[in-house]
Amino acid sequence: MTKIMRKQSTRLTIVISLIFILSSLLPLMQIFLMYGNGGLLAIVDEILFRNDLDNTKVTNGIVNFSLSLLSLTLYFKTKTKSLKIIYSILFTVFSSLFICFLAYDYFGTEDPNPYYLYFVISSLISGIILNLVSLLKDKNEIERVSH
Predict the structure, then answer these.
(1) Sign of the CA dihedral 15, 17, 18, 22?
(2) Euclidean distance between CA atoms 25 and 39, whole angstroms
(3) Which of 28, 45, 123, 132 is surrounded by the fewest CB atoms within 10 Å?
(4) Measured between alpha carbons, how far is 97 from 45 in angstroms, rounded to an integer?
(5) Rounded to an integer, what distance in angstroms lies between the CA atom of residue 130 and that of residue 138?
(6) pLDDT for 13-41, tens place per residue?
(7) CA separation (Å) from 117 to 10, 30, 57, 93, 122?
């Protein structure tokens, strides 16, 4: 892999991370993500736990953590640019929602001031993880090509 391709791959994850961090400041985006993910969690909670509200943390771990780990693994293994974009977006969404739900459970149900604090922090953490994996992937591909 050439140095130019490596820069493009890293640039791609940086751009996706920055877009997601900036979009976390938009309340409408937060509403869509949280309600959409809440609907998914409710369906899984109904199937697994018969809608027991005490298992919300477990359902969050099962759904969001599993999907973020799956999308990160698929991102690491893919070779095409379009799939890299899709898997990096999926990872960012699911890992950010996982972290956001954890923060919400840890800090309580009171909204933070400013209201977008959970989303910005979770987006930053997700972006850092995605970019570290991207750098690791690039390094791994360079070592594989050079040998």
Answers:
(1) positive
(2) 22
(3) 28
(4) 16
(5) 12
(6) 888 888 888 888 888 888 888 889 888 88
(7) 26, 11, 20, 16, 9
DSSP codes of every residue in 46-115: HHHHSS-GGGHHHHHIIIIIHHHHHHHHHHHH--SHHHHHHHHHHHHHHHHHHHHHHHHHHH-SSPPSST
Measured CA to CA, the distance from residue 49 to residue 25 in angstroms comes to 33
Alpha-carbon gap, residue 128 to 146, rounded angstroms: 27
Tokens of 120: 């910005």
Look at residue 8 in the predicted model and tell me its pLDDT: 63
Write down the residue that tokens 């594989």 correspond to.
144
Is the entire prediction scored with pTM above 0.85? Answer: no
Per residue in 91-139, pLDDT tens? 999 999 998 888 777 766 666 677 778 888 889 999 999 999 888 888 8
133 and 76 Cβ atoms separated by less than 8 Å: yes
